[in-house]
Give the backbone structure.
Amino acid sequence: MKITELRNVIRDYSQEQLALLVTELYKAMPKAVRDEKNIDAIVQNPDAQAVRRLRPSHEGSNLCFDDVASETRTFIENASCQCYFVPNRVITKGQRPKWRFIVRRLYGSLVQLSAQPECRQPAAELVEQLYKLLCRACRVALFSTCEPFRSVGIPQTEFFSQVLTLKRQYSDKSQFVQEAVALAVNGGLDGSTTTTGLMLVFLEFLPIPDLKLRAIAAAEELKDQIMNERQQARDWSDRYETEGRLNHLTELAFHCYAQLGEFEKAIDYFDAHCLENDEEVKLYVLAQLLFYCYQQPELTAEQIRKAMARGVRPRPGLIKLAGSIAVNKKLPEQLP
């Protein structure tokens, strides 16, 4: 069984089932393997083990937070000034290509140090600063690539998840949700990453309804700020960028309502706030969310039929989808 298959299988397991599963796996694991892979450390502090594969566990005890923090701040400052990209006297030509190894090492060191209570918050904040630096490098030439996460060897979604894992340990609910929403929609994207992918990572950190409602409120607050930026936008590219962020926040609120089981609210919110002049494109996005993200075939077909009744002409793929839903779910076979 592959890791993705395993995750899908255990996704809906109860806490008792997961506890039993972990216990049985632990008992079945030879002691030599447990020692070699440092399994006990993972069990004792799973949040700090996302980088276990990046750095041998025995090195963590030799780390000095002040040294790692100082090196991290210096690296971020130099990288922000493009010292790893353009000729300069600070970083030599031979050292510039090594930035990816520096990020990987600093990331691993900081996450390991975050397991120490006295280092938890400052280490987490530096991990977040590294994440923001790589996000900026997706848009601005800071390194010799526009896919910095891929170059470092840490998927952006994994890096983002680690940032949220550490942030959650010291932030109160409101602060965590508000800052996480901004991180999900404001950063640059690696070539293989989507904003929706980052949103879905963030939503995993909202296990209770209260947090989802807080996320909707935070999205609304951030939208107000972006709307002010939109009014001050100087050219079409700025307006396009701000409208994209507004639509991402609309999608985030949609996901929150959908995960609360309030699909009608989700659809109404999407219809009211999605900034898309082409009604067919808007319908296509909504159908994708309903059908592929939340497996709601009846609602998907209903939205397609309503759009056609308003005069919208869906693309052939949507018409075919609605027809197949009608056959498989015994809905009306003919669309208006």
